[in-house]
Amino acid sequence: MIAIVTDSTIGLTKKEAAAYGVRIVPQNYIVNGKTYKETYFDSLGDFTSLINEPDAVTETRQPSVEDFYNAFNHLTNKGYEIICITISSRLSSAYYNAVLAKKQLASGRVEIIDSSLAAGGMYLLVRRARYLVYNGLSFEEVVGGVYKYISSIETRFSVDDLTLLRNSHRLSSVRKSVRNILNRKPLLRLSGGAIVAEDIAIGSSDNIKKMFGSIPYNAANIIIQYITHSQRVDTILRLARRLFPDALVERRQLGPVLGIHLGCTVIGIVWSIR
After folding, report:
1. Which of 53, 98, 237, 252 is buried deepest, with most CB atoms within 10 A?
2. What is the pLDDT of residues 116-146, one digit of tens each?
């Protein structure tokens, strides 16, 4: 039996986690000294109002070694082999804590995979892992399939204000090129798990055009990512479905941990190729 474990930045609802057979290890976010657990997305309530409070002091904290150990120990004691997929190690220490937790296990087979991705990218990886498991592949074959799939997933996103990203302690891999862009809307991407600047957009229309310009014709899955719903999100969703009729297009919201670092107006696109 193979179990899948991931951290909460994936943004699964409780129903989705049950359907995919996924164990969620919560990240934590702190607002004005009070700690909240980021669990299933549909259990988070109105977190946008909380993290957007005027003068709110916010920070985030990765799952502890103990958090991962408890999840691994529970599953291995039930006879499961575990595939753990974490947010990029360039964005969070979750991966390293999962590795340390694995070393503390007395027995059991656990593979810790640094996704080099976040949120929607992790969702595609988990979905692929579950597909391979359902099709009867061995543990080694599923692990190999997940690692292979990572290279087919791309992420682009844009934020209205770079202040949060500049000041972020968790998203510490922001390159100097991003820091030097002032009063513009850069198009950002994940490269090797780190955030880098890809282009600069002048206005919303140019931003959307450049985000779509990166998507190849053979995209199989396209995910529109956002926190606060807006007309712009609907426009991007409709455009994606019109331009890529053969792709599975969906929209998914990001949670408070990423919201604290990116801002609640972030909009991104994640895709995988066939």
Report:
1. 98
2. 999 999 999 999 999 999 999 999 999 999 9
Helices and strands: H and E segment counts in the chain: 11, 13
User: pLDDT digit string (tens) for 77-94?
Assistant: 999 999 999 999 999 999
Among the listed residues 231, 257, 236, 269, the one whose alpha carbon sits nearest the alpha carbon of residue 48: 257
Helix, strand, coil abundance in the chain, percent, nearest 5: 40, 30, 30
CATH 3.30.1180.10 segments of the chain: 153-273
CATH code for residues 153-273: 3.30.1180.10
Strand partners, 196: 189
**What is the dotted CATH code of the domain comprising 2-150?**
3.40.50.10170
- The 3-class secondary structure across 5-57, one letter per residue, is EEEHHHCCCHHHHHHHCEEEECEEEEECCEEEEECCHHHCCCHHHHHCCCCCC
pTM for the model stands at 0.92
